[in-house]
Structures are given as structure tokens and as C-alpha cells.
Amino acid sequence: MSTLSKLFVVMILVLALILLGVNATLFAMRADFKHKFVEETRHHYQSLQIKNAELADSGTRNQLLADANTALKRDNEQLTVEINSVKAQNAAHVTELANKQNEIDKLVAGVNTYGRQLEVQLQQVSDALARVEEYKKRAAEAFNKAAMADQDRLYRIQEAERLSKDLGSLENQYQELARDRQRLQETIAALSQSGVPVDKVAPRKALAGQVNAVAGELDLVVISIGRDAGVNEGDDFTVYRGSTFVGKVTIDRVDRAWASGRVTLKGKEEPRVGDSVSNNVLATPGKSGN
Questions:
Q1: Which end of the chain has fewer CB atoms within 10 angstroms, the N or the C?
Q2: Highest-scoring range by mean pLDDT, 48-57, 162-171, 236-245
Q3: pLDDT tens digits for range 164-182
Q4: How many folded domains does the chain comprise?
């Protein structure tokens, strides 16, 4: 007998033993399969009734849930519409807020600009107030000077009135002295023709020039001739305009080409640039001569 045949016989033997064991077990249990089937069937029927009741209850609950779900869907749709409306309103509010913020920024920028302008204007006002105070001080000083000038003017008017009273007599003296001068010159000429020496008794050298500058507030007159022409400190020069007596000047400073002096006697007119000057009309000899 081959090995395969032997193996096959052994397997049959093992199966027979297993079948024998199962039958012995079933016989030992002596189970009532029909009774068990009925019990199982009744149990399954009761379970089925319970399941059906549960299913009916579940169906009712499902219907209720479906109705609730439908209501929830309607509420959800309404809420969606409301949410969309709220979103639109929110977007509009955001846009409006952005516009308001831009307006606020513009207002803030305007306020800042206005503040800077106000600061500049306040500084200008402060400067203007300072200038006003300065102008007040200057006005007060000018008023004081005007008052002093007015007093000085009154004094000058009184002095002019006094000098005006003397002017007539001075002009008469001027005319008389001019005639005396003419007579003296004629006498000197006659003496000279007679052979009488007149060099040592001759008058000073006649000097004539013009007024080059005038400082009225200082009564100062500058004439166009100086030491080179024979002018000396202390010389008196008559200032005249045509045949009008203007005043008398006493020289106190001499340069080579010019001289200056104070007005010691005034006429009706004030000295002016271009007036004539001479030491032979109402003149007195100087401290030193030629």
C-alpha cells in the first residue's frame, strides 16, 4: 500500500471519530429543538413587535424632526436673508464709517492747520502789540519832542519878532555903512592920487564867496573860501541874497579851501546854499589879517 493511501485512510478514520463525538454529544444533551424553535420564534415575534412599535415611534419622531427640520430650514433661510441684509447694512455702515473717518481726518487736518495758522496769527498779534508798544513809546517821545519843538518854535517866534524889530534899523545901518564905505573908498582914492601913502591904513583885503552847505538846526554855515584866500578864525562874513541881508557868520574853523562858522546875527531869511558872502559888508576885522 502506498503512503498516499495510508494518509487517506488515516484522514477517514479521523473524520469518523469526529462525527462519532458530535453524535454522542447531541445525544447526551437531548435537546428539544422544536421547543427551542417555538421559544425563539415567540421571542423574535415579541422583539419584532417591540421593534415595530419603536419604528412607529421613530417614524413619529422622524416626522416631528422632519417638520422641525423644515421649520428650521425656513428659519435658516429667513436668518440667511436677515444675515445677508445685516451684512449689506454692515458693509454700508463700514463704508459710511470709512467716509466719516475720512471726514474726521480732514477735520483733524483742518483743525491742525487752523491751529498752526492761529499760532502764527497769535505770534503776529504779539509782534503787532510789541510794535504798538514801540510806536506808543516813539509817539510819546515824538510828542515830547514836538512839545519841546513847539516851545522852541515859540521862543524862535519871539526871537524872530525881536530880531524883526531890529532888522529895520540894521538895514538902515547897512545902507548907511555902504554909503560910508563908498565915501571912504573915494577919499582913499583921492588921497592916493595926492601922493599920500595909504597902504598901512588900508582896509583888509576884500573877500567874497558863496555858501556851500547849511546845517540849520546847528546854525552852521560852510563857505567856499578858506585860508588860501585869506580867511582866518574869528572873521565875520555877511551873508546876503541879492540886496537882501540874510545874516552874519563868525568863522570858527578854517581849512585851505573852505571855512565854517556859526550864524551870530539873523535876518528875515534863512541862509541857503548859493547865497553870497563877503567880509566888506557889515564886517569887522578878524583876529589876524593879511
A1: N
A2: 236-245
A3: 665 666 666 667 666 766 7
A4: 1
